[in-house]
Amino acid sequence: MTTPQLIEQIRLKKSFLCIGLDVDLTKIPSHLLETEDPIFEFNKAIIDATHDLCVSYKPNTAFYEAYGLKGWQSLEKTINYINEKHPEIFTIADAKRGDIGNTSTMYAKAFLEDLNFDSVTVAPYMGKDSVEPFLAFENKHTIMLALTSNEGAFDFQTLEVNGKELYKVVLETSKNWKNSENLMYVVGATKAEYFTEIRKIVPNSFLLVPGVGAQGGSLSEVCKYGKNENVGLLINSSRGIIYASNGTDFAEKAREEALKLQTEMEEILSNK
Fold it and tell me: pTM value?
């Protein structure tokens, strides 16, 4: 999917919502455990109930890898279902990969070719030659960790390097990499006060923003400081939507929570 196509979907749906499909078998409704593939059945129901309210789905691959081969097969079935039924939706493999060139190339092939995700998250710690292999794929996007929402983000990301915070160095350096126009960045919603500085460095890039909802981030604050003329934000909510209920009404309740966020987003877009 190209960036203009993503922007078009945001305008059409009046939404920049990304739903995280982080499936924990200990949290899903018990009746699904009797099915052949509980993870996929859970995801399918969530997708069927919310696809018109969001522009993106983001499976965190750890929640699939934890269940071995069956979990990976559930991930494959999930991405195939989205691509077949809702090809207009932007898909994110939240894998946080990153390694030396040849290895990164194989990671990129796994997610961007074999599974056919539109994007994959990567860690930038190993630098240019660990990220550029992901950027080489046409009409695919690499979403690089910049300033995350976890408490440990302050261990490294905000430390000063030659008088400049490290996350700023990462953002500025990445702009010089080959095919950097395919870069997006992860910026946590709990760091809303940093968005002004981030937009000075990457004014036009899309930012994937986790942390709204269960982690306490404010949608209005993120939009106030982080939104650009093309919106430029994908606001992710996972637990707050998919685990709104653990009963047989889980998909209906998930839709209700997604609708709350979409309605708020529509209002923000109408007041631009």
Answer: 0.96
